[in-house]
Structure formats: C-alpha cells, structure tokens
Specification:
This protein is α+β, with helices and mostly antiparallel strands. The chain is built from two helices and seven strands; from the N terminus they run E-E-E-H-E-E-E-E-H.
C-alpha cells in the first residue's frame, strides 16, 4: 500500500432510499424500508473508498469480515449517510468503523475489515478453484 493511510481517515456519502432497496424475498417485499443487504453493500462501498487511493499498482482489496447491526429503519425517500472511518492499518488488513445514519436516527453500525493482496495471487487462487470445479463437473 502507498504511504499515508492511517486511522482517522474518513469517507462518507449520502443515498436516498428507493423501492429497489427494500427487503424482498422470492419477489415479495417485506417492508418499505432500507434492507439490511443494501445497508451492508453501502457500508462496504464506504470502506472500499477508504483504501482505493492507497492501493499500489497490482494490489487489490477484498472484504474479509463484516460485523454490523441494523438498529433502525430508513423509509422510502429518506436520505441515509454512509460513513467509514479507518481504525486500523496493517500491511495486509484495513479495518473501518462503518455506520449508516439519517438526520433522525441511527440505521446501522459496525466494523468492516478488508484484506489487501497482490492481484496476481488472487487470480491464481481463482484459476486453481475454477480448474478444480471444471474437473469435478466432468466426473
């Protein structure tokens, strides 16, 4: 990683809750609120925005762990601010506190950990797995 990434660096952005962000299972909408899946997606995106300026050429990051609580609703049309604050940096890990908040309430909070690795190493792991899957399918 490039120098400069340190605890305290923050990224944030705001989205408006739309119908496609609602929880639905098998085509049935459960509630007219922001789904947990969507909340986690944006929390991960906020964390990824933390690392992007610091990745070296040939380096990449990927989600390793996420531990969040969805503590309150955000209704259709409501604006939600997603925030990631870097709390820990090592050569192979970046940890962020993540949150989702409206002007009226906390929606979610937790931590998001990203692994940092060389792209070629990940591509090799993916290729090896694809080869094993193909071999298994041929049986």
């Amino acid at each position: 990683m490039k120098p400069g990434l340190q605890p305290g660096i923050t990224e944030e952005f705001t989205v408006t809750v739309t119908e496609d962000m609602r929880p639905s299972f098998n085509g049935q909408v459960v509630h007219d609120v922001l789904s947990t899946v969507t909340m986690i997606y944006y929390m991960e995106w906020a964390g990824r925005k933390i690392i992007l300026p610091y990745l070296e050429e040939g380096e990449e990051g990927a989600g390793l762990a996420i531990d969040v609580k969805h503590v309150g609703p955000a209704v259709l049309g409501q604006k939600v601010t997603f925030r990631a604050v870097c709390t820990e940096v090592t050569p192979k890990r970046v940890v962020c506190e993540v949150s989702a908040e409206t002007d009226l309430n906390l929606v979610g909070k937790g931590t998001f950990t990203q692994a940092i690795f060389r792209q070629k190493d990940m591509l090799q792991r993916i290729q090896e797995l694809e080869n094993r899957v193909r071999a298994q399918v041929k049986r």
